[in-house]
From TrEMBL:
Domain HTH merR-type span(s) in chain numbering: 1-69
Record flagged with keyword Nucleotide-binding: no
Keywords: DNA-binding
Gene Ontology MF terms in the entry: DNA binding; DNA-binding transcription factor activity
Protein name: MerR family transcriptional regulator
Pfam families in UniProt: MerR_1 (PF13411)
Length: 240
């Protein structure tokens, strides 16, 4: 058989056959006097096996091990590893579908794909209008990649399940929104800082509350009076 006939018999392309030659999966027969390679039945059987193993999801290196006739890794071991890999893929797909389902239900997370538990937290809080609430959602979306994610979610989840706490948070956000054009020494700053500090649950703020580059970046993104409220609130929390 010529290479085209061999490829057609195994259901692959001639390019694939040449690639398998280069990867050492299919022995390359010597050329005849006319310059053509001639393949036999064994070549067709090996090529068909390469195709079947590849369709199972094995890499070409793993296929080479299987074809090594006992000199490579055990075929059963490779299949077990493949099954484990498929299990991990299924888990990732289920998680992605859960996040997608949450977004389709209208979870107010913008376009950010979130983990299922964070999406559920935002769904429990519900959509809150205003720029402060929007920034709060953005920070929570960023939390999804933070090392502190699990700790913060554990602290916030009981608040999200408490309608009174959600309403207090919404009211504080509205008061912060009202300070967008205010001066730093606005008389509303002090009382609002005290109220915000009182509403922050124990364990939410840990370590240094000021001076960190991320914290300063957050404060710089806020209007001056709003940032002053947050600074004062964090200082009050640190003194607890």
């Amino acid at each position: 058989m010529r290479i085209g006939e061999l490829a057609a018999l195994a259901g692959v392309t001639t390019r694939a056959v040449r690639h398998y030659h280069r990867r050492g999966l299919l022995p390359e027969p010597p050329r005849r006097a006319n310059g053509y390679r001639v393949y036999g039945l064994r070549d067709a059987l090996v090529l068909a096996r390469v195709r079947r193993l590849s369709e199972l999801g094995l890499s070409l290196d793993e296929v080479r091990d299987v074809l090594a006739d006992g000199t490579g890794r055990d075929f059963h071991e490779i299949l077990l590893e493949l099954d484990d890999d498929l299990t991990r893929q299924e888990t990732r797909i289920r998680d992605r579908r859960a996040r997608l389902a949450a977004l389709l239900r209208g979870v107010p997370t913008g376009e950010d794909p979130l983990s299922a538990d964070l999406a559920a937290l935002l769904e429990a809080i519900g959509h809150q209008p205003g720029s402060t609430a929007a920034k709060e959602r953005e920070l929570l979306a960023l939390l999804d990649t933070s090392p502190d994610r699990d700790r913060v979610l554990a602290v916030l989840r009981p608040l999200a399940d408490d309608p009174a706490a959600v309403e207090r948070g919404s009211a504080l956000n509205r008061e912060l929104d009202a300070l967008v054009d205010a001066e730093v020494d606005d008389p509303r700053v002090g009382p609002l800082a005290a109220a915000l500090a009182e509403s922050l649950p124990a364990g939410l703020v840990s370590g240094e509350v000021e001076g960190g580059s991320f914290g300063e970046a957050v404060l710089e993104s806020m209007a001056p009076a709003q940032a002053e409220v947050v600074r004062r609130a964090l200082r009050l929390v640190a003194r607890r």
